[in-house]
Amino acid sequence: MDTKNQAVKNMGLIQELARYLATHPDKDHQTTEDVTYVAFSSTDEQLNSANEKLLASLVHEGRKVVNAMQTNDKFHPWKFSPVAF
User: Fold this and answer.
1) Is residue 80 a contact partner of residue 28, using CB atoms and an 8 Å limit?
2) Ordered strands of the 78-84 beta sheet
C-alpha cells in the first residue's frame, strides 16, 4: 500500500477512534498527551500491515505507543494495548 492510500484510510479510521476517545473518557485507554495511537482496522488487512510498519517505526523513535484495534463489538468498539512505554 502506498503512503497516500494509507494516509487516506487512516484519516477515516482515526476520526472514528478520536470520536470514541472523546465520548468515552472513562474507558480503559491511555489518555496522556504524549501517547501516540496507531489504529488497526477490523476489516482492512492491507492497512493493518502498513500500520504495523508505522508502529514499529514509532517504537524505534522511542515514542509511547498504544495499539488501538477496532472490533466488531458495538459495546466495545476499540481494544487498547500499550506497546511501548
Assistant:
1) yes
2) 35-40, 64-70, 78-84
Domain ranges across the chain: 3-84
pLDDT digits (tens, 9 = 90+) for 57-80: 999 999 999 999 999 999 999 999
> Cell triple for residue 63?
515514542
84, 78, 63, 62: which is closest to 18 by C-alpha?
Answer: 78
Distance CA 56, CA 79 (A): 19
CB contact at 8 A, 13 and 70:
yes
- Record the cell numbers describing residue 29, joined without a space: 485507554
This prediction has a pTM of 0.88
Q: For residue 22, give the C-alpha cell.
A: 472523546
The domain 3-84: what is its CATH number? Answer: 3.40.1350
Residues 61, 55: Cα–Cα separation, whole Å: 10
